[in-house]
Amino acid sequence: MIEQFKGKTALITGGMGFIGSNLAIKLAELGAKVTILDAMIPDYGGNVFNVTESEKIRINFCDIRDPSAVDWLVRGQDYVFHLAGQVCHLMSLSNPFPDIEMNITGTAIVMEALRKHNPNAIVVYTGTRGQYGSVVSMPVNEEAPTNPKGIYEISNLTAEKIIKVYNDVHGIRSCSLRLSNIYGPRSQMMHSRFGVANWFIRLAMDNDTIQVFGDGTILRDFCYVDDCVDAILRVATTPECYGEIFNVGSDIPVSFRELCDAIVKVAKSGRWQFAEFSPERKAQEPGDFYSDISKIERFTGWRPKTTLEEGIAKTIEYYAKHRDQYWTKPEKTLPASDKEKVTATKR
Ligand SMILES: NC(=O)c1ccc[n+]([C@@H]2O[C@H](COP(=O)([O-])OP(=O)(O)OC[C@H]3O[C@@H](n4cnc5c(N)ncnc54)[C@H](O)[C@@H]3O)[C@@H](O)[C@H]2O)c1
């Protein structure tokens, strides 16, 4: 895989954000010429500290909803990693339009640009495990029914289906991932609306109290960002993956209590306590989830390599060095409601 990116070109939409910036840095290390497209939407994860422009990484501040910009930027790209979009489940419940405009229309704009100007590019799209909604049995494989619980999840599922149509009908080699809870360096740490593991890490680093809704037994599969980037690169370079959908997560489920214990232990600061679910949170909570990752393992050999403790330690190490680039004092940056209502319902 390492050789396959040497001298290649890659466009990353959403490349200033959490996963996109880690991907950009890795691709540049592997010898690819990377172009980032990012609109730096306020409150999302875009951060100019995440990536430094260089000979290997070019940055374009523009929006996937602008067809002329996208038409231009897709030209000559060997790979297009489509990560830009509305990223917040909670926001999608009070305003559905950013999801529709960014995740559905935006994806159609990217795929149309490719159809017209660069149909030979290989595309990877990052959707969410939330597309499954509440599940009846675990681990959840790609054949499980999709019952999205919010507009964010519906719009991700729609984007995935748009991409599949362009693969099947227009021959644009593409593949879609359903990511579980990804955590690690370069995620936004300003608020708790998405990225629950990172948020808990911030609270522990601030020697604060993590509030866990319910009895803390809800299960998730947390995946360290380097492993997620590895999965993205492997599917991109495995022709059998084109036209397919893959879960990316971990088959080792972790309860929120276990997550908090691990964070507090590794951080050597902070604490956690139980908190009552608010009725709204309770209604939105999809319940336990962990991924069956055997399909991506079968196709590409991918498995997550980073243990939870290692991932937490690396994350803390990064933010301990660069905290001031991601958050300032908690009292100043956070509304009280955000600080108190940390829940188990994030992506
Ligand atoms: N992080 C996770 O745990 C997770 C889980 C499931 C799915 N995903 C999906 O992975 C993708 C990347 O997520 P992330 O965690 O890196 O998010 P992020 O918020 O850190 O990064 C997203 C980036 O996209 C940019 N962006 C958003 N809308 C844009 C637009 N219209 N035009 C151009 N740029 C735009 C933002 O400015 C931001 O920099 C998203 O599609 C997200 O839904 C992430």
Task: Give the key terms.
UDP-galactose 4-epimerase, domain 1; 2 domains; 7-stranded parallel beta sheet; two-stranded parallel ribbon; 13 helices; binds nicotinamide-adenine-dinucleotide
The CATH architecture of the largest domain comes to: 3-Layer(aba) Sandwich
- Total of DSSP H or I helical runs spanning 4+ residues: 13
Number of β-strand runs: 13
Largest sheet: 7 strands, parallel
Shape: globular
Q: How many domains is the backbone divided into?
A: 2
Q: Level of helix content?
A: 25-40%
> Secondary-structure element sequence?
EHEEHEHHEHEEHEEEHEEHEHHHHH
Please compute the radius of gyration using only Cα atoms: 19 Å
CATH class of the largest domain: Alpha Beta
Bound compounds, each kind once, are: nicotinamide-adenine-dinucleotide
The main sheet orders its strands as 3-2-1-4-5-6-11
What is the CA-CA span between the terminal residues? 29 Å
Q: Low-confidence spans: pLDDT under 50, at least 5 residues?
A: 332-347
- Which whole number gives the mean pLDDT? 93
Classify the secondary structure makeup into a structural class: alpha/beta
**CATH homology superfamily name of the largest domain:** NAD(P)-binding Rossmann-like Domain
The percent range for strand residues is 15-25%
For this structure, the CATH topology of the largest domain is Rossmann fold
